[in-house]
Structure formats: C-alpha cells, structure tokens
Amino acid sequence: MNAPPMLRRPIMGGAFGQAGFELATQPTITNGLHAVRFMVIHLTAGQIVSIAEDKREALAAARDLLKATAPAQQPEPNWRQSDLWPGIQLVPSTPQTPVSRRRREVFERSGGVCFYCRCRLSIHAFEVEHQRPRALGGDDSPINLVARCSPCNSAKRDRTAIEFMAGQTSGRQSFRQA
Ligand SMILES: [Zn+2]
Predict the structure, then answer these.
(1) Do the bridges between strand 47-52 and strand 127-130 make them parallel or antiparallel, or are there none, so unpaired?
(2) Domain boundaries, the chain
(3) Which residues hold their Cβ within 5 A of ligand 1, which is an ion?
C-alpha cells in the first residue's frame, strides 16, 4: 500500500525562528473518512513537536511547547499532550504497583493515550518511546519521550517518529498491516 505523500513546508517567524521548523500535512483515513493531520516538525531535532487535526491547533500547540521548553526560563519543562489534543481527558496516575517518576511523567504528559494512534493506555502496560531512537542520537529530554501502545511499538521499529508517521495513512488497522 502506497502512503499518500506527506507535504512539508517551512514555518518561519515568531517562536519558530528562521529555518528550524516545518509544517507537515498528511492525508489520513479516520473511521473510513478522508481527513488531514497537521504536524509541526523540529528539523534539527528530527522530532514531531505537535500533531493535530486542525492547522491552527497544531501551530498553537507547538508555540506553547516551544515557549515551555525554552532553556533559560524553565529548566524542567512539563508539556502535556492535552495541549496537543484539546478536549482530551487527562488520566490521573493512580498506580497500584510502584511506577517510576519518569514513566508517570511521560504517561501524564501523553494524557494516557498513545502519541501515535491515540488509543487509551494503561500506566502499567504502555511503552516509553524515544521519538528519535537512541541509536539515531535521541536523548531523554521531555520532547523526545512519548507514550505509545505495543502495536505502534512493533510497527515503528527503529524508525524516527517522522518516518513512522509519514508511512501511516489510517489508524490502528494500517499499523497491523505494517
Ligand atoms: Zn498506538
């Protein structure tokens, strides 16, 4: 199955500066309907900063995240996936068995859903995902760590988040075919 191309164009000005970011427009199929997904991509980091079904939402979420992670002002940035998906219900972490602080933070930032397909996750079962794999230079910074489900885990393999998203046209079903 050939994925429709992910169109990318530079974003400039304001929080985005002169050359560091692109807006990607990706055709998708959601519940059998054609739809479009917008992603803001940080080029030098090779990471997806925000994903939304509305262009303005994607840009606004990316601006908020960039402000929140500006190095000097906030040494411990704490961005949440609820900023990326307005209206999403945050799942409070109330684990029955001990969960590491890092896992809890990643889970809470993700709003308790998979970063890639938005399926609901359990705090005991999700994977902490490096958007950019360690093998490709990814680190443990908050922007690089997201929560994901195991179907997305096995479908993504060692691709970067951007490569992975570029190869997806619909939801969980195409992940299973991958
Ligand atoms: Zn998933």
Answers:
(1) unpaired
(2) 7-177
(3) 114, 116-117, 149, 152
